Amino acid sequence: MAIIDVIKYEGGNDTFVYKHKTEDFNTGSQLIVHESQEAIFFRDGKAMDRFGAGKYTLDTESLPMMKRFFKMVTGGPSQFHAEIYFINLSTIMGVKWGTDSKIRMYDPASGLHLEIGAFGEFNIKIADSGKILLKLVGTELGLKKEDILGSSGYTNTSISGKFRSLVMTKVKSFLPKAIRENNIDILEVDEHLDELSEYIRSELNNAFDSYGLVLPEFFITNIDTPDDDPNFRRLKQQHAERYLKIQEEKIKLAEAEAKRGRVIVEAETAADVKLVGVKAEEEATRIMAYAEAEKIRAEGLAKADAMRAQGYTYAQETQRNIGVAIAENEGSGAGGIGSAISGVVQAGVGLGAAVSVGKATVGMMNGVMSEVNVNNTSNAMTEETWICPSCGTSVTGKFCKECGTPRPDEKWTCPSCGQTNNDGKFCKNCGTKRG
Question: Closest Cα to residue 218, out of 252, 178, 187?
Fold first, then answer.
């Protein structure tokens, strides 16, 4: 075979290990290793020099292990014999697998013995190139994707692959175990494909590790259930009945909760209405009392404003009223002032006497008014001073001199029922408003 000057990978994308077809090389030849590849030189079944991605010139410096077997000429080309394997370190995707026979299992949920099948895919890559070369490849020309499980990984007619028996045995052993240990209902098994896949992947990796291989992903895409089995059909019927019964119980519980909530809302609403009624009644009473007080205050203020407009005060008005009352009382009596004046006129007293009598009468009137003023002043000095709640004026007596509001603590007798010692604006016994 001709000696070549350039050594490089010539396999396909689905190849794990590629053995170069040439075994005799010259020093000074170029070795090209692509990314995600590794090149290993073998001699007499032993791994010698190892090269990662890059371009190398083969000489005594780059082949320190190989030069122990050959007398390589320094400074010139020399020939040597070796086997070169290129290792593909990338992940090979989509290796299909499937059980070649039914898996007998015990369903923990129903207590039935069933037969199922399983199918899927996995991805695989080389984790240790030394292990796979020593334990798997040997003197073979390489390792391809189809060599893992066979040309068709999940049919009975497939060419048997190197790991077919390993994968089938692990899946058949650990799939029923995983279903049983996790108490998975076979009718709901599709909901647990992820966890079942991870469980199987972990077990398979324990076996593949000794060959320098690893499964980054393992997928169970379908579990074939025995739909024609009478026991399985009965199991599906029981599951449906149980599901319907559970749903009925949930509906009854929801209705009971709704009824309970409705009763609570109605009770709270009734309590709120009652409370609102009491508060409304209290608020109406307060508003009526306030309105009555405002009416009395407004009347008093209006009366005070009218007096100020006429130029006199409430005290002057009181003195005027008292003077009028005295004059009326005296005029109606037998010895009153009016009788005296009438007697003087009828007796023919002269004008001078009449004037004197008039002066005397005026003096008597002034004396009476003076006595009234003195008495009023004396009473005012002895009466207690209080603050009007309507206009804030400091006053004495029973009524505010500014607005006419009655003294709050003044006791009065109800004209309707005769209740005494009333001190508010309404009778304590019958509610009659103070006159």
Answer: 178
